[in-house]
Design brief:
420 residues; 5-stranded antiparallel sheet; Thermophilic metalloprotease-like; 21 strands; homodimer; 12 helices; alpha+beta
Chain lengths: 420, 420
Amino acid sequence: MPTKAFQTKLAKYADLIVTVGLNLERGQRLIIYNAATRGVGVHTLPLVSEIARAAYQAGSPLVDVIWNDESLIRTRLEHIRHADVQEYPTWHTKGLLDTIEGGGALLSIHSSDPDLLADLDPELAGLWNQRHVRDYEPVLVGATVNRMNWCVVAAAGPRWAKKVYPRLSSEKAEAKLWRTLFRITRADLPDPVAAWTDHIRELTRRARYLTDRRFTTLRYTGPGTDLTIGLPDGHRWLAAREQTASGHEFTANLPTEEVFTLPHRLRTEGRVQATLPLVHAGQRIEGLNLSFQGGHVVRAEARKGEAVLRKLISLDEGASFLGEVALVPQDSPVARQKTLFFDSLLDENAACHVAIGRGYRTCLPGSERVTDAEFLERGGNISSTHVDFMIGSSQLDIDGIERGGAVQPVMRAGEWAFDI
Amino acid sequence: MPTKAFQTKLAKYADLIVTVGLNLERGQRLIIYNAATRGVGVHTLPLVSEIARAAYQAGSPLVDVIWNDESLIRTRLEHIRHADVQEYPTWHTKGLLDTIEGGGALLSIHSSDPDLLADLDPELAGLWNQRHVRDYEPVLVGATVNRMNWCVVAAAGPRWAKKVYPRLSSEKAEAKLWRTLFRITRADLPDPVAAWTDHIRELTRRARYLTDRRFTTLRYTGPGTDLTIGLPDGHRWLAAREQTASGHEFTANLPTEEVFTLPHRLRTEGRVQATLPLVHAGQRIEGLNLSFQGGHVVRAEARKGEAVLRKLISLDEGASFLGEVALVPQDSPVARQKTLFFDSLLDENAACHVAIGRGYRTCLPGSERVTDAEFLERGGNISSTHVDFMIGSSQLDIDGIERGGAVQPVMRAGEWAFDI
């Protein structure tokens, strides 16, 4: 039985998700799912109930939920043959697409066991994920052009929490993960909305400064990392607050500490070492090293999960090019937890990162409605996947190189190196 | 934490559902839902997990679940305006229809709080149910002609159990309801499958006897009941075991104690008094009395829930004519519990009953593929609903009247009155 104090915090968190996160409009449908496994686990019902309450109070006519408990995903993959992976419940995607087409909003809740499929046949898990990604692509496309307001948040769950805090019992770990989530999303402050207004203002200023510099290239230096990433002409840096095509503002991630833009897909050179493990499709990739030539991954190594990594970057052509570059200082509330969450929503807000796969067209004004070919031509990347991996640390320096060749410090020892 | 003994019984129950109930074929998809509220509550996960395990072991490539926790249905109906009821997640139905079209099987799990919506605006609850029924009709049509193998079962839940056993705590009530479910479905016997083979044989013999009599009319006599129900030419009585169009056998209800057929929609005369309350769309109807002329309900009264009753029988034209007549002896395992379950799957197996709404074409051989007009012409009934209500008791007598006028006893004091 949850305590009343917990229930109050959960309600504040739900209110924050519906107001600051989605900024749900009166009359808007909301559909709740999990982008990684499609459906949310049934253990998230207490949060989902509070979100539904908040959404109905905001005037939503229908809050719809795609559930898909991870225990059932596991049971399936323990039993079926490889060919059976192609049997796919496409009606789930129809729920998402119907909501997008009807002007509704999407909320993805992360709450999965990071090692859900770790001990299963990686070939089967990879096929399962490929089938899933193929079906899900139209939804991802909708999100990367902000066709609708959307948001990604996290909910504690017993199995996930036990991985994050292995020395605690499942119950204590889950309670602690909830406390951490409330802290890093500022939901435990007396006035979370006011705190977010200040936070969004600061991130927006940093994004504006970076956009105004019009860097042609970023240069990363750190242990195992010597990398340059070209940025396309006309790119802009975004942070925290985004807009739908119709001008409706929302915050796509809670928490969010990053300032990000689109790299030029053909202009990444050198090598980079991940500073945190990456969890992909329920499987863990550790000790990741990538080398790039002409934007393309030419060498991919991992101490653990290398097969998963190889499958991931060979999913389609765009999966071996970068689609996002993001800056996060080491003093972010998430980074200050000094905790590995095994979930990119949280871990990507603890460290600078890049993503392979699909790029956000909103980072290249004017590209939202061009053809795929034109987007590629301008330096954008197209793929059916988008996977972040963390490369930031307190030993990472980043410089920006201006058109004339001038070098400006962007980050030093993992912290912002410019004033706003 | 469930005990190991409970988990073992749950697994046997799940095996029974997949083998005797659905008789799931290798390669068949399975989709699990709840016909009344569309989705199953998340508290049913332990049973759903065991069913998934059993189905995968039987060679299913995909077990899909439509969840829709009743707490979320309530939250919605507490907040939305009447017009918002029309916002409907049609993609859920698509999941069911895709499964039917792809040759899959359907499993409906009953586990709802009987008073879920009892204290809400009955007008709103009625509109919600109408919208739901309209969307669901193609699935109901598929079931009434046995396009696929399908089955309806029950799972205990804390709120439902507390209604059934109000003097116990929720936890003890739920444990007791599970024990009862295992008993009345014979899942607690050493060899449940053998027990079902015997049981099915007896019911099938009774059905054959009744079919062979070719009664033109049934006459019901009991307290508050004086009713004749005409039966259409060529009707047959069914029980327990049904067949899909392609000849695949299955058992549509667990438990099932009934022998049933199709009444002639225009030939019900007199009055009938329900002997148990009826729960419809989360609302309770008590003290139900109906009068019929020419098959049509000409008077409908209820001590409680009369508004719900009126909405129900005015849903469409067929909703005020009978679509099913079913015989259940008072010594059935369900009846012996002397318990009101507030759920038709169980209560209908404790007493003789009739249903208003859609009739089963399988009870009129040759009518499975005729037009609706021809089915009506032969005496069948068409409607977007099908709702059972219980009229049996230990004071009910039923006679069958043969073509020549001879009267044969069918039931006396609620028990079978013929040998097989």
